[in-house]
Design a protein that fits this description.
The relative contact order is 0.16. By secondary structure, the chain is α/β, with parallel strands linked by helices. Strands 14-15-16-17-19 form a 5-stranded mixed barrel. The protein contains 15 helices and 19 strands.
């Protein structure tokens, strides 16, 4: 009989979520470094370099890899011979650990959880409650798996129930392109096959916590249908040419992980959940001897990769920008932004368009005339920081607001993550505006370009408030130009064709 103390679980949860906020799993770093070395697409290679440099910076300074520090997901396998010395229940202990982690004074993490899910959607301010899955198993230990799951990748989860005779591969190759790049590739695909609807989704989430080992599997060959499927999907998903950040390239996924469960004879439930460039998970075991001991990775685990904007990057002064200047930009152009940049995302956009619809004036200081807006919800600053990690959020969530923002506010440019949908692209073309893309998964690197920040409006929205950043040389790429041409269409199309020819060219 092992006794697990309440404080040991709480502190282990707190330490674990702090740990994964700034340390990538080393299997991910090794796989991404190998993909970077093999990548032939300059745009994808640049994006991977930013992610790798950002990762090393976060490890050194112990600051979040991504501004979206994730929803806390915890899997507990509790031995049936465990005795608890605790006053709180499992959910309450986990939530207290999450609360401590996200409020840590030296590394404040962004609280993203809102409650209730419909209606007021008020931020809980401490990222609780966590999503907890508990299983009783034989033994006298508590096995713990933690994951901090960002909204950009979680929102791309897919599920279906196929007929047993249907092609699972065809379905995956059909749905992966519909995910766009908002899940921040290159990452992993977790798949759950079998069980029931909810079991398949749970299997897919668990699969994402397994180590990246596709190249070892490739070297030894498959020993089961599941392993053969992993290899087939790994090759065929990468052949789609989506590439890092959706810019087109050789690597879209670093691995495909599959977990299976027996299912009904009439069913083939299939779930796919992607993991983003901010892959964050951890496993440890409690044995009654105190909190988990988490060893930091060695500095030499990170590759010697540097990032520079390059000689072809255009320096742009946002305080003097004109429509004539942005009209000269083309998809794929690299830009270094300096000057004053407004921020705002979902909640701020909703409030703005509601005010416009009612004929109300926007708050004092909110003037978008000839301005750019950055879709971001930054982490709170610590120590001498101006702002915490401040990478872009998924831009497609703002698509439905784009026409009204461009038509009625004088806005001429937007900065966000990944592609824009047809409605937004049409509005950009109609109003001769522009959309720029920053790299998702490089939030701390982006924050280093921010030299000033002040609150402008909607302070009650917390991380979703409107701020004004003073930036210097913030790296972005032209994703949709004023003619409505999108690099997220042209890039993958080019690389899909090139990859199709690579075997013959080799």
């Amino acid at each position: 009989m092992t006794t697990i103390r309440q404080e040991d679980l709480i502190q282990s949860i707190a330490d674990g979520f702090q740990y994964i906020s700034y340390y990538h799993p080393q299997d991910y770093i090794r796989a991404l470094a190998a993909a970077y070395e093999a990548e032939e697409s300059p745009a994808a290679r640049d994006a991977m370099a930013q992610i790798l440099v950002n990762s090393r910076m976060c490890a050194e300074d112990r600051r979040p890899i991504c501004q979206d520090t994730g929803m806390a997901v915890v899997f507990l396998r509790v031995g049936m011979e465990v005795r608890w010395e605790a006053e709180l229940g499992i959910q309450e202990m986990v939530d207290e650990g999450v609360r401590r982690a996200y409020a840590h004074p030296d590394n404040v993490l962004r609280a993203s959880v809102v409650s209730p899910p419909i209606g007021e959607r008020k931020n809980t301010r401490d990222n609780t409650p966590a999503v907890v899955h508990t299983e009783l198993i034989p033994g006298d230990r508590v096995e713990v798996k933690l994951a901090a799951k960002g909204g950009g990748s979680e929102n791309k989860a897919k599920f279906t129930i196929l007929n047993p005779s249907d092609s699972l591969v065809d379905w995956v190759l059909k749905v992966v392109p519909t995910m766009g790049a908002g899940w921040c590739p290159p990452g992993m695909l977790g798949m759950g096959i079998g069980g029931s609807a909810e079991k398949a989704m749970l299997l897919a989430k668990e699969a994402l916590m397994e180590p990246i080992d596709i190249h070892e599997l490739k070297a030894r060959g498959p020993a089961s249908p599941s392993e053969a499927l992993r290899l087939e999907l790994f090759e065929k998903v990468n052949a789609l040419g989506i590439g890092a950040q959706g810019l087109g390239g050789l690597t879209t996924v670093l691995d495909v992980k599959i977990k299976e469960y027996p299912t009904h004879a009439a069913s083939l439930p299939v779930a796919v959940i992607p993991n983003c460039a901010a892959t964050r998970h951890l496993e440890f075991t409690l044995d009654g001897k105190g909190p988990a001991k988490l060893e930091p990775p060695r500095p030499e685990e990170w590759p010697d990769v540097t990032w520079e904007a390059g000689p072809d990057a255009k320096r742009v002064d946002l305080d003097r920008i004109t429509r004539e200047e942005i009209a000269s930009w083309r998809p794929g152009d690299r830009i270094l932004l300096s000057g004053k940049l407004l921020t705002g995302r979902d909640a701020a956009h909703k409030r703005i368009v509601d005010m416009l619809a009612r004929g109300e004036a926007l708050p004092e200081g909110v003037d978008f005339t000839n301005r750019f807006i950055y879709y971001v919800g930054p982490v709170d600053p610590v120590r001498d920081e101006i702002v915490g990690p401040a990478g872009p959020t998924t831009a497609t969530r703002m698509d439905k607001f784009t026409e009204q923002m461009l038509a009625e506010t004088g806005l001429i440019g937007m900065v966000g993550k990944a592609e824009r949908g047809p409605v937004a692209i049409e509005a950009i073309k109609k109003h001769q505006a522009v959309y720029l893309m920053a790299v998702g998964g490089a939030a701390y690197l982006v924050a280093k370009a921010i030299e000033g920040s002040r609150m402008i409006a909607f302070e009650d929205l917390g991380m979703e408030a409107i701020r004004e950043f003073e930036i210097r040389d913030m790296p972005v790429t032209v994703a949709v130009d004023s003619r409505g041409e999108s690099v997220h269409k042209t890039g993958p199309a080019e690389w899909r064709q090139r990859i199709g020819k690579l075997p013959a060219d080799a």
